[in-house]
Amino acid sequence: MQPRHFITTVLAAAIAITGLTAAKAHAGPDADDIAKVLFGTAAIVIIGKALEDENKKKKRRQVYDAPTRRYEPARDPYNPYATPRPAPRGNPHRFNRELPLACKRDYWTTSGEPVRGFGVRCLSRSGFPTAHLPRSCEREVETRRGYGTIYKAGCLRRSGYRVSRR
User: Fold this and answer.
1) pLDDT-based confidence at 155, cuts 50/70/90?
2) Domain range spanning residue 35?
3) Distance CA 70, CA 73 (A)
4) Could you say which residues form the signal peptide (predicted)?
C-alpha cells in the first residue's frame, strides 16, 4: 500500500470516528471533549511522523548495484572459430587506482555496524577523483558531522584499487 493512500485512509477513518462520537452542543467546551480532540490530533501526528521516518529509511537504503556480467564480443559470422581480439584498454594513465592511506579509517553505519572505508570528503581533498569509483562500494554512515558517504575498503580492493604506502 502506498504511504499516501495509507495516510488518507487513516485520516478518513479518524474523521469518520470523530463524526460518530459527536454529542449535542454544550454551552462551553468540556474538559473531556478537549482531551479527546488533543488525543486524536496527537495520534494522527505520531502516525504521520512514523510513516515519514520509514520513507526516509527506504530512500537511504537504495544503492545501485553494478552489473556482474561482462560483455561478450560478437563472433565473426564468416569464421565462427576465430578468437576475437581483446578490446582496447584505453589510456592506462587515465586515472590513478592508488587510494591515499590517510583517508582509510573505521566508520559506523546507520545500523551500528563497523565498516572500514575511505571518506568521500577526504578523497576529494586529497585530489583523488571520486567519479571513477564504483557506486556498488558506496555506503551511508554516521559521522561527527552527520550522515556521510564512504567507499568500503574491501569492495574497492576487489574492484582493483590499492592503498598507497604514503
Assistant:
1) very high
2) 3-61
3) 10
4) 1-27
